């Protein structure tokens, strides 16, 4: 089946996570993505181990493998005039340029979006930075952890009497990659009507603030900074983790009808008529009375017994799984979220793209590339002779 972006060419000059995540999504959607890497060390994340994957070509960090599926690797030195010329040649043929250099970083090489668009008016450029292309922080480097802190997310995470906490995944980087891909696809749609490309400016701090969602409006509407609730929800009760006799579960009661069923199941029919608990607004106000009462009932029986009863009564709840348990879950297995791609005589595990088109998973079948794996083939496509490629290799321009 033809992929939605089949025939589109992406030049990916990004590294680490946000940019590569966007590039991987575009590759999953069918675009041809050429990853430009430094010829000596490549993407920073190639060395961000342990853990390392062995036995599938060169040893590489798991971190790198999470965000580079479906790409081709061209290892060349952007600081050399010959390398810059090759990037210009590729940009002249490309539909999309992804980059996450510091503001002005590519201009010194004549590879900034304005320069490349002069060669290819239809080129769509997407620049990913910590703080955007302008403003008092524009020149600063930005990393997910500090952005979670500056953007308010950490103030919402953690136990009420504990230290503010980051998330267990670099979620700001991931969300920035998704926003970048959305922007690129919108510009691609517009180019179909106008023939002209756009430049997209995506900043980690902007994305972090934008994705505070209901908590941002909680603060803006109330005029008060939201407090940390640990595993509880600021606007819904009961919607949190509870201890059972042999483990923990997540109980997510989303409306009053579900709460009435929960009250009956727990043997507390009167809660559904109690004015303190009958509505969600009342339950939020009186959570300090209700939550301990629910906890006392739940801790008397095993987790799986409760989960079976919740499912039978249409009460949303689930186990708190480890990652290995999550990948072993029957639904996750049915949806084939764990894939294994062959490379170098071994297999590289991958987490599938969650998009399905007409019942088919949009997951690229090509594994993450080894550093410079496609350099010679790509340069040959540009018309370079074997002798010219060999010379560039000897001079250290390519790998």
Short description:
Helices cover 38% and strands 16% of the residues.
Written account of the structure:
By secondary structure, this protein is of the alpha/beta class. It contains 17 helices and 15 strands. It has helices spanning 18-28, 62-65, 81-91, 113-119, 144-150, 153-156, 171-194, 204-210, 213-222, 256-265, 280-285, 287-298, 303-312, 323-328, 330-334, 375-381, 386-394; strands spanning 9-13, 32-37, 52-53, 60-61, 71-75, 96-99, 124-129, 199-203, 239-243, 248-252, 317-319, 338-343, 346-351, 356-357, 360-361. The strands form five sheets. It has a six-stranded parallel beta sheet, with helices on both faces. The chain has a three-stranded antiparallel beta sheet with strand order 9-10-11, with helices on one face. The protein has a two-stranded antiparallel ribbon with strand order 3-4. A hairpin with a 6-residue loop joins strand 3 and strand 4 (60-61). Helix 1 crosses helix 7. The protein is elongated.
Which helices and strands appear, and what pairs or packs with what?
Blueprint (H helix, E strand, L loop, with lengths): L8 E5 L4 H11 L3 E6 L14 E2 L6 E2 H4 L5 E5 L5 H11 L4 E4 L13 H7 L4 E6 L14 H7 L2 H4 L14 H24 L4 E5 H7 L2 H10 L16 E5 L4 E5 L3 H10 L14 H6 L1 H12 L4 H10 L4 E3 L3 H6 L1 H5 L3 E6 L2 E6 L4 E2 L2 E2 L13 H7 L4 H9 L5
Parallel strand pairs: 1-2, 1-6, 2-5, 6-7, 7-8
Antiparallel strand pairs: 3-4, 9-10, 10-11, 12-13, 14-15
User: Level of helix content?
Assistant: 25-40%
Strand order of the largest sheet: 5-2-1-6-7-8
Radius of gyration: 25 Å
Compute the number of strand runs. Answer: 15
- Please report the distance between the alpha carbons of the first and last residues: 34 Å
Q: Give the overall shape.
A: elongated
What about the largest sheet?
Answer: 6 strands, parallel
Helical segment count? 17
Structural class: alpha/beta
The protein's oligomeric status is single chain
How big a fraction of the residues is strand?
15-25%
* Mean of residue pLDDT values: 97
Could you name the ranges where pLDDT drops below 50 across 5 or more consecutive residues? none
């Amino acid at each position: 089946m033809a992929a939605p972006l089949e025939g589109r060419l992406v030049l990916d000059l990004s590294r680490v996570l946000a940019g590569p995540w966007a590039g991987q999504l575009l590759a999953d959607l069918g675009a041809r993505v050429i990853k430009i890497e430094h010829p000596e060390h490549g993407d920073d994340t190639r060395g961000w181990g342990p853990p390392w994957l062995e036995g599938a070509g060169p040893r590489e960090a798991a971190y790198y493998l999470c965000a580079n599926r479906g790409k081709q690797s061209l290892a060349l030195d952007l600081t050399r005039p010959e390398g810059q010329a090759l990037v210009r040649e590729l940009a002249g043929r490309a539909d999309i340029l992804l980059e996450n250099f510091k503001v002005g970083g590519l201009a010194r090489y004549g590879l900034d979006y304005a320069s490349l668009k002069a060669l290819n008016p239809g080129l769509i450029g997407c620049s990913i930075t910590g703080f955007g292309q302008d403003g008092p922080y524009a020149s600063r480097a930005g990393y997910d952890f500090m952005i979670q802190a500056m953007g308010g997310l950490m103030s919402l995470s953690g136990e009420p009497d504990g230290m503010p906490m980051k998330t267990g995944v670099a979620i700001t980087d991931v969300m920035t990659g998704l926003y970048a891909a959305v922007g690129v696809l919108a510009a691609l749609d517009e180019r179909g009507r106008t023939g002209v490309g756009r430049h997209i400016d995506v900043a980690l701090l902007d994305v972090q603030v934008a994705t505070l969602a209901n908590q941002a409006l909680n603060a803006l509407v109330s005029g008060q900074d939201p407090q940390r609730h640990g595993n509880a929800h600021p606007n819904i009760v009961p919607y949190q983790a509870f201890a059972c006799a042999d483990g923990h579960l997540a109980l997510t009661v989303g409306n009053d009808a579900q709460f009435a069923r929960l009250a009956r199941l727990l043997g507390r029919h009167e809660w559904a008529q109690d004015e303190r608990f009958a509505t969600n607004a009342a339950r939020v106000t009186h959570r300090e009375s209700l939550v301990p009462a629910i906890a006392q009932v739940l801790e008397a029986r095993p987790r799986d017994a409760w989960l079976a009863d919740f499912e039978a009564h249409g009460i949303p709840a689930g186990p708190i799984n480890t990652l290995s348990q999550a990948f072993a879950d029957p639904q996750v297995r049915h949806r084939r979220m764990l894939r294994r791609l062959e490379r170098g005589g071994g297999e590289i595990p991958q987490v599938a793209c969650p998009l399905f088109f007409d019942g088919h998973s949009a997951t690229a079948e090509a594994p993450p590339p080894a550093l410079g794996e496609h350099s010679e083939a790509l340069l040959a496509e540009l018309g370079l002779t074997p002798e010219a490629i060999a010379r560039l290799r000897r001079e250290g321009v390519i790998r």
